[in-house]
Amino acid sequence: DQKTSSSELKKPLVPTSLNLSEYFKQFLFPQNECELHDFRLSFSQLKWDNWIVAPHRYNPRYCKGDCPRAVGHRYGSPVHTMVQNIIYEKLDSSVPKPSCVPAKYSPLSVLTIEPDGSIAYKEYEDMIATKCTCR
Amino acid sequence: SQASRVEAQITSSAELESGAAPWSLLQPLDGRERPGLLPPLFKVLYDEQGGTPRLQPDSRALRYMKRLYKAYATKEGIPKSNRSHLYNTVRLFTPCAQHKQSPGDQVTGTLSSVDLLFNLDRVSAVEHLLKSVLLYTFNNSLSFPSTAKCVCNLVIKEPEFPLKSLPRVTFNSQLEFQKKHKWLEMDVTSLLQPFVASNKRSILMAVNLTCMKEQPQPSAQDGTWNLTLLVRPSLLLYLNDTSTQAYHRWYSVHSQRRRAQCPHHKKGLPAYARVESAAVSRSSRPRR
Description:
The structure holds two protein chains of two kinds. By secondary structure, chain A is an alpha+beta fold. Chain A contains three helices and seven strands, in the order H-H-E-E-E-E-E-H-E-E. Chain A has helices at 2-10, 20-25, 79-91, and strands at residues 35-37, 41-42, 52-54, 57-58, 62-64, 100-113, 119-134. In chain A, strand 6 (100-113) and strand 7 (119-134) form a beta hairpin. Chain A is elongated and about 85 Å long. At the A-B interface, strand 4, strand 6 and strand 7 of A face helix 3 and strand 1 of B. Strand 7 (119-134) of chain A pairs antiparallel with strand 1 (89-93) of chain B.
């Protein structure tokens, strides 16, 4: 098959319709990349200040943004995330793209007034997002 | 099937309107409400205006707990990591009833003995008692000697039989305090442990406090000073909430320490995979 291999060699590496900058764009990180965002609230906005005495301000933070195609170690994503991305892009777009979600949390101390008038100091797990991931 | 589905929806919404608030469907099956943050959060999800009415706490008790909060957490509510103890919950109860048993004695500074009833309904079965303290606060106007020695005689009774003459357990505690603290803490852990552990819903105790001045003060009349200004004591319970929603400091510190000791420890990877990943990291290191 000498003829085919030589004709193969003549083929341009990149399809002419697609120029290089366009081609590499698909590997860049998205502008609004998946990352942690602040959301400062006070319990009086939720009308909870009649039973939550402290803290006055609470920032639970949240994760938002697009997941890059090559997530890899950057987000601590498992290989499954890239498989899911390939399925979405090449096989079935009804399968959702990987989502930007919290991966780690920190606790919160709360001082509350109980219905019977007693007062409770409690420390709750997983009340503030501290790291995001793509899953 | 479409019609039957619509019909099912109508009946289920009718059941809801019959009175069961939607959030109550999220309550645990055993019917007992789990104290803590979650039930009110569910109410907010269903936009319950105002929530359940609450009794207002004693202002001195609230001031003490705010002071405790500042000692344990930052302004943003992050638990301070410089604390070594294991409790992640502190509950303060003020007595819901008190009956005078015997008048005090002004000369020796004996406080009138009173029966105090504490309702412990808010303590859940997953909260294990680590320490309990009777907390006396003082009126600001109290002309109290700067230091004094107090002896407390405390008798636990059966709430069901308050007049039962035989005291269950008596407890003497010798304690000293300085006025500048404004609080007098008396450790009653050994006394209350069995009651809280057996999930008692209320505790009735008769408290008799006698305080002797350290050094006589010429200004005050000899021996007479007014103890009745001592405000009735509150009961402080230091608990370890063992539920998953509570923060377990010792666990998180321990797991951070473990992670620091072996950073390459890949969670859940089989041994040969760890060897491979170590090989990979070695090969990616620049050759010498």
